[in-house]
Task: structure prediction
Amino acid sequence: MTTSTRTLVAAPEISIVIPVYNEQANLPLLFQRLTAVVDQMGRPTEIVFTDDGSKDNSLALLKGFVVQRPDLIRVVEFDRNYGQHMAVMAGFETARGTFIVTLDADLQNPPEEIPKLIAEMDKGHDVVGSYRRDRQDSLLRTLPSRLVNYVRERITGIKMRDQGCMLRGYHRSIVRIIVESGETSTFIPALAQFYAERPTEVEVEHAARHAGASNYTLYMLLRLNFDLMTGFSLVPLQVFTIVGMAVSGGSLLLVFYMLLRRVFVGPEAEGIFTLFAILFFLLGVVITGLGIVGEYVGRIYQQVRARARFRIRTIHEKN
Ligand code: UDP
Ligand code: MG
Result:
């Protein structure tokens, strides 16, 4: 990267990092509202957009922003789509501010809430999380999300009121740890919470998506949550071991019972379908277990292979 050759621009105090994937319908309004907020705060700030391989006009729009506000905007261009968290990660690598704020590009997180986060960081909190006051998503999203929040907290021990809210502030020290962690399938808010020394949370407004549809399919959300569970805990494996032991214990009892029955009542031949039912159930348990082990093995493989997490084609900025 080009950090060392940059001209003598004093490092900004605040960096705002925004992942962008096919957000052309949202970017103009985002730009307008965001710059208004930043100008009003009047503190040295930079805004780092990561174009996560958008297929629409997003990159062109972002490049236009650099021309309009070279004092403010920097754009990281990926060579293809690597996902929201890697886009944020690249933004983190590029950001120079002491306080680093993340935000979604679809205006679900109002930029007007940024000063609230900064105020908490000024007080010395190194991670400022947020929870959405009135979450504007469908029940189909909010109910599973509540469940997942609960399970995640039980399994990983990481306390976050609202894991899905990406409007968050991190001190540079935390961001550095995250960048250096070198993790590929990770969940940035959880990682930050894990390392935080003085975390806090604030309530923020939440809006429906300004335009377009969520980039996340059910399958992607599922995978993200697997990342979250397996990335921060071995509990899924341990639960599985415990289930396995319980089933073995139960079957052993059954074997004893059958033996006794054979002696005292005689052999039995009926109940073959019950047997099948039990077998199929156990087969399901075994396959699930294989799957869980596979989740971990896959992640180990990814990590061991140590392939670059993403490739930055170029960084658009004033030079
Ligand atoms: N995003 C991204 N890469 C992706 C998917 C999403 O950079 O592969 C960005 C997207 O542009 C937005 C943020 O991540 O700024 C959240 O995405 P989205 O609104 O689709 O998720 P949701 O709000 O439904 O969880
Ligand atoms: Mg969204």
